[in-house]
């Protein structure tokens, strides 16, 4: 039994040793025939060469060639290792590879009149690249498009693109036109003097609906043959159709807050064939209890179905506001001149109310308008009157201002906080004061000036907290009050 085991082990061991010996046995070295020669290769970075490109005389000899490692597209010189095989026989050789950059597309703008040069596509002059076939002298520059050219470099041909593009957007001038209600004019009619290298189409950015008489701003889009676009703003004035009713008497209607509005008084609609026709008024958006400008629509139709719709402004106003602004404007015409600075205008307003209103200790405080009206017409009032008059005049001058009121005192007091030229708000108080404090100019006070005046012993005894106000109010957030 022992003899049999030893015999079996001996036979198996011999087989295993033989197999390992075969694995470690090196391949036979291939001797390349003399007709197989290596050569360097120069290629563009648009692709990679084949192993056969590095060898001559390889045809039908039973020998194959492959890369040991795939070459890279990195620009410059590199060494590649070639593996030759013929059955079990192999050998390796090294060859030189040069990769250059090929610009596959060169673009110029229309009008540059630049002929394509070989250097536009192959910048390395040492390679001696040239155009294959006819060398292009000057390709057409009066039209856009792509031209395919052939570049010959290091014995290889490459197809490249020479492109002429136009990137200048078209230009045109706006042309305001009239159009009858219900018709939409061609967008081309709203522009003139179109300039471009190619044909230009004109479209509406958004086609308008022109059923109501009035003026409509529109935007036109200009697009040339090469896809360049530009916009032009114009206006269409919509007029009633010639064969439709025409309205008369639709001037702006001014009415007082709360009054009945007679929409049809003084208004007629006359049709060329039917004569005077009836009409309707859509006044759903009017709030006669609130000041503002509202639009109502007058509509009339004739027996042929021709319809005209015309808007009309209804201006709801407060008689007191109209009157006070009339008084204020008369004052501003006297005290304000065109060459005045912002600060000079503020001082002029301050000085007028201070000098022309007698302090009597009472006023109409139902509203700023009524208090200012009382000040302008009677020349008397209290601190609220001075404040209100200043608000009206400053607002009419377009000068930003805010209300300020005393807190913690034994009586009320109002004054103005006004934006001056330096971008800061200063306190302006036109109301005459019983106590004068040195260094405090009531026409332009900082917060520090308010504190100086308020803390004066005489002032504090007569009117405690004279210029103390709540600085945390929301209306003061985000503004800079002079410290």
Tell me about this structure.
The protein has helices at 2-24, 118-121, 319-335, 342-356, 368-378, 383-396, 447-455, 457-462; strands spanning 37-38, 41-44, 55-56, 64-67, 76-86, 89-100, 105-109, 130-131, 145-153, 156-165, 171-174, 177-180, 191-195, 200-204, 214-224, 229-239, 246-248, 253-256, 268-271, 275-277, 279-282, 292-301, 307-317, 358-359, 380-381, 401-405, 414-419, 425-428. The chain has 483 residues and is of the alpha+beta class. The protein has five domains: 37-100, Immunoglobulin-like, CATH 2.60.40.10; 105-165, no CATH class; 171-239, Sandwich (Immunoglobulin-like), CATH 2.60.40.10; 246-317, Sandwich (Immunoglobulin-like), CATH 2.60.40; 320-476, C8orf32 fold, CATH 3.10.620. The chain has a four-stranded mixed beta sheet with strand order 2-6-5-4, with no helix packed on it. The chain has a four-stranded mixed beta sheet with strand order 7-10-9-8. α3 (319-335) crosses α5, α4 (342-356) packs antiparallel against α6 and α5 crosses α6. The protein is elongated. Residues 1-25 have low confidence and may be disordered.
């Amino acid at each position: 039994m022992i003899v049999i085991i030893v015999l079996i082990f001996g036979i198996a061991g011999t087989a295993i040793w033989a197999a390992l010996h075969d694995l470690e046995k090196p391949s036979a070295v291939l001797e390349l025939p003399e007709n197989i020669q290596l050569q360097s290769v120069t290629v563009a970075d648009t692709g990679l060469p084949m192993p056969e490109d590095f060898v001559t005389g390889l045809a039908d000899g039973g020998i194959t060639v492959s890369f040991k490692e795939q070459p890279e597209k990195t620009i410059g010189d590199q060494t590649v290792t070639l593996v030759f095989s013929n059955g079990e026989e192999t050998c390796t050789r090294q060859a030189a590879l040069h990769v250059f950059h090929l610009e596959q597309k060169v673009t110029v703008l229309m009008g540059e009149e630049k002929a394509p040069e070989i250097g536009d596509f192959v910048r390395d002059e040492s390679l001696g690249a040239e155009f294959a076939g006819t060398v292009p002298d000057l390709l057409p520059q009066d039209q856009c498009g792509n031209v395919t050219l052939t570049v010959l470099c290091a014995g290889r041909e490459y197809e490249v693109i020479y492109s002429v593009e136009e990137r200048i957007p078209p230009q045109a001038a706006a042309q305001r036109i009239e159009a009858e209600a219900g018709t939409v004019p061609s967008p081309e009619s709203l522009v003139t003097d179109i300039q471009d290298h190619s044909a230009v189409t004109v479209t509406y950015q958004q086609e308008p609906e022109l059923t109501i008489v009035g003026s409509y701003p529109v935007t036109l889009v200009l697009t040339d043959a090469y896809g360049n676009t530009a916009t032009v703003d114009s206006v269409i004035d919509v007029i009633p159709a010639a064969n439709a009713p025409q309205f008369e008497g639709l001037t702006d209607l001014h009415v007082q807050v709360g009054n009945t509005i007679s929409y049809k008084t003084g208004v007629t609609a006359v049709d060329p064939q039917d004569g005077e026709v009836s009409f309707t008024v859509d006044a759903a958006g009017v709030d006669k209890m609130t000041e503002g400008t509202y639009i109502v629509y007058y509509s009339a139709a004739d027996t042929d179905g021709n319809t005209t719709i015309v808007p009309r402004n209804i201006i709801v106003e407060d008689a007191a506001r109209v009157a006070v602004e009339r008084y204020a404007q008369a004052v501003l015409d006297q005290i304000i001149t065109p060459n005045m600075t912002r600060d000079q205008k503020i001082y002029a307003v301050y000085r007028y109310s201070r000098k022309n209103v007698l302090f009597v200790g009472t006023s109409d405080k139902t509203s700023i308008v009524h208090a200012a009206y009382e000040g302008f017409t009677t020349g008397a009032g209290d601190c609220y009157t001075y404040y209100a008059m200043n608000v009206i005049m400053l607002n009419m001058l377009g000068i930003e201002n805010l209300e300020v009121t005393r807190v913690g005192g034994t009586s009320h007091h109002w004054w103005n906080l006004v934006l001056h030229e330096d971008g800061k708000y200063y306190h302006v108080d036109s109301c005459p004061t019983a106590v004068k404090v040195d260094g405090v100019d009531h026409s332009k006070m900082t917060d520090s000036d308010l504190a100086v005046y308020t803390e004066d012993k005489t002032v504090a005894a007569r009117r405690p907290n004279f210029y103390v106000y709540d600085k945390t109010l929301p209306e003061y957030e985000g503004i800079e009050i002079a410290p």
